[in-house]
């Protein structure tokens, strides 16, 4: 059973479109994250939810909107896609804070904006 | 100065070599220090973590933390081609949810 899963795995779309990426974890964790990894492999936190509440919101354009319907799911909706949004987006989950904050990552969604 | 600095490499070594990967950091609030391994086209996976200063060993991997120098290392002994991946250091203060990652070092172990 996959611990953290994402759909779709690949997404190719035109500039200006709106798209969503979905994430689900079956680890029973309360906290989930979205990361963006650019072509140089730099992994940057975008958002984090703890038990459906937004707790981290880094400097990300308003075109990106996360949504957590329950603590096992965290989706990412992107409006008006731009060329610079092309990247790999990773979802992750972790146990409660107060320790090493071990994060478990999904397989990634490779987004290409044409 | 960036919070976490990591030489991106690439680093290429022959099979059986000892590999040393390093990160420096500036935030003295960091208490947990982690190494993630990321194979090509996969998500990062946690290799090991260390709390505060000291060493930790797990098989062929040894993590070292020197808080006084704000310097962490990962050593890989008897490196194998299957160790070829990008290695990312990551750190946190422990009381919040945020992990700060280095940029990753691409390692290739040649047979």
Secondary-structure map:
The complex is a heterodimer of chains A (114) and B (111).
Chain A: E1 4-7, E2 10-13, E3 19-25, E4 31-37, E5 43-50, E6 53-57, E7 64-70, E8 73-78, E9 87-94, E10 104-105, E11 109-113
Parallel strand pairs in A: 2-11
Antiparallel strand pairs in A: 1-3, 3-8, 4-5, 4-9, 5-6, 7-8, 9-10, 9-11
Chain B: E1 4-6, E2 11-14, E3 19-25, E4 32-38, E5 45-51, E6 54-58, E7 61-66, E8 71-76, E9 85-92, E10 100-101, E11 105-110
Parallel strand pairs in B: 2-11
Antiparallel strand pairs in B: 1-3, 3-8, 4-5, 4-9, 6-7, 7-8, 9-10, 9-11
Structural class of chain B: mainly beta
Residues in helices of chain A, as a percent range: under 10%
Gyration radius of chain A (Cα, Å) is: 13 Å
Supply the helix-strand structural class of chain A: mainly beta
Notes on the protein architecture:
The complex is a heterodimer of chains A (114) and B (111). Chain A is mainly beta and 114 residues long. Helices cover 0% and strands 55% of the residues of chain A. In chain A, strands 2, 4, 5, 6, 9, 10 and 11 form a 7-stranded mixed beta sheet that branches. In chain A, strand 5 (43-50) and strand 6 (53-57) form a beta hairpin. Chain A starts with a strand and ends with a strand. With 111 residues, chain B is mainly beta. Chain B is 0% helix and 55% strand. In chain B, strands 2, 4, 5, 9, 10 and 11 form a 6-stranded mixed beta sheet that branches. In chain B, strands 1-3-8-7-6 form a 5-stranded antiparallel beta sheet, with no helix packed on it. The N and C termini of chain B lie far apart (38 Å). Classes of the chains: A mainly beta (114), B mainly beta (111). At the A-B interface, strand 5, strand 9 and strand 10 of A face strand 4, strand 5 and strand 9 of B.
